[in-house]
Amino acid sequence: xxxxxxxxxxxxxxxxxxxxxxxxxxxxxxxxxxxxxxxxxxxxxxxxxxxxxxxxxxxxxxxxxxxxxxxxxxxxxxxxxxxxxxxxxxxxxxxxxxxxxxxxxxxxxxxxxxxxxxxxxxxxxxxxxxxxxxxxxxxxxxxxxxxxxxxxxxxxxxxxxxxxxxxxxxxxxxxxxxxxxxxxxxxxxxxxxxxxxxxxxxxxxxxxxxxxxxxxxxxxxxxxxxxxxxxxxxxxxxxxxxxxxxxxxxxxxxxxxxxxxxxxxxxxxxxxxxxxxxxxxxxxxxxxxxxxxxxxxxxxxxxxxxxxxxxxxxxxxxxxxxxxxxxxxxxxxxxxxxxxxxxxxxxxxxxxxxxxxxxxxxxxxxxxxxxxxxxxxxxxxxxxxxxxxxxxxxxxxx
Length: 398
Ligand code: CTP
Hints:
Blueprint: E1 4-9, H1 15-27, E2 31-36, H2 40-43, H3 46-53, H4 71-78, E3 81-87, H5 89-97, H6 103-110, E4 115-119, H7 123-127, H8 129-140, E5 144-145, E6 149-152, E7 158-162, H9 166-178, E8 187-192, E9 197-198, E10 204-205, H10 212-223, E11 227-232, E12 244-248, H11 252-262, E13 268-271, E14 278-280, E15 299-301, H12 305-312, E16 318-325, H13 329-339, E17 344-349, E18 361-362, E19 364-368, E20 373-375, E21 379-380, H14 381-395
Parallel strand pairs: 1-2, 1-3, 3-4, 4-5, 8-11, 8-13, 11-12, 13-16, 16-17
Antiparallel strand pairs: 6-7, 9-10, 14-15, 17-19, 18-21, 19-20
Helix pairs in contact: 1-3, 1-9, 4-6, 5-8, 10-14
C-alpha cells in the first residue's frame, strides 16, 4: 500500500507549483490529501486540487457537509507526513506559536509524524528576524525545513525566499520516509568501484566497475540510519547522504590499508569493489617508451581484502562479499563464501542481460553461510541495494 502524505497549502503565489508537487506524489505511488488555507484558494482552485489529488479538499473546520469524524485528528492519524508548501511567514508564525485558527494550523498541532516546511516569501520577509526566529524554533522542534532557494521572485526582485522546486521537495520527503531506522547506530563499511594498478605514471590496469552498486548500498544503509564509510576506487558516483563518509583510493593496496584501519569498528562490512587480483610488480617511475617488440608486464597478487577481513572478523560482525562469475556461477559463489569466511555472498551473473557492469539495473542471488538462497528479480541497483540490506538485517545481531 502506498504511503500517505498530507499537503498543506498556505496563501502564497508559489501555491501554483504545489499542483505539480501533488502530481509528483501521486506518480510516486502516494495517497495524497490536501488541506489549504482560505488565502491559498485565492491562488489555486479546489477543483484543480481535488482533480489532481483525487481526494476531497479539507479547508473548513466548520463545513456543514463534513463527516462526523473530527477531521483534523483523523487526517493527522492518517498521514505518514505533513508537507506544507508553500509555507508563508504567517503560517510559520502560527505553527511556531501554537495558534490554531484554521484547518491547516489545527492539523499541524495534531500531527505526530514528520513535518516538512517549504517556506516561500519575499526575501526581505524571509530575512526578517521574526521569521528567522520562527523557522529556527520549528527546526529545533523537529520540523524539516526545506530552505528556500535564491532566485527570481514573484514580486519582481531576486533573492532568497523562492520555494524549493516541487521535484526537490518530493525527493527530500520521499527519501526521509524511506528511512526506517533499522540500522540506527550501526557502522557499515562498503568498498566500491574498480582499482587502478599503475604500470607507469600514465597507464594502469583497471576494470569496468562504475561503483554504482556500492554507492547505492551506501545511500540505502545511510537512509536506514547507519554511519557509513565507503572506500571507493576511481568512480564518478557521488555520495549524497550526510551520514556517508567517503574515502577515495586508487590501488588495491590503498583500499586494503584504508579498510584495515577501521574494520574493527564496523558492524557490517560489504565488499562490492571489483578489486584487481594482480598488480604490476615493478611500476615504472617514468612513462614507458614503446619499443619494436611486444612487452610483458610482470604481475603479482594483491591482498584479498574480503578474505583478510574474513580471517579477523568477530561473531557480531556481518561480512558480505560479492562474486562476479561467468561460468559455474553458483558453485563458484558458494566456494568464495566458504573460502573467504563471509556470512553472505551476492552473486552477480554477467550472463543476465541488464545485470553487472555499467548498467543501472542488476539481478543477484544471495547465498548465506547457513545454506539459504535469496534470488532477486532484475531491478534498479537502488532496489537491489535495499534487498541486500533487508537480507543482511535478517542476519545481523541486534
Ligand atoms: N575481493 C577483495 N580483494 C581482492 C579481490 C576480491 O576484497 N583482492 C572481494 C571483492 O570485493 C568481492 C569478492 O572478493 O567481494 C569476490 O571477488 P572476485 O574477484 O569475484 O573473486 P576472486 O576471489 O578474486 O576469485 P576469481 O577472480 O578467481 O573469481
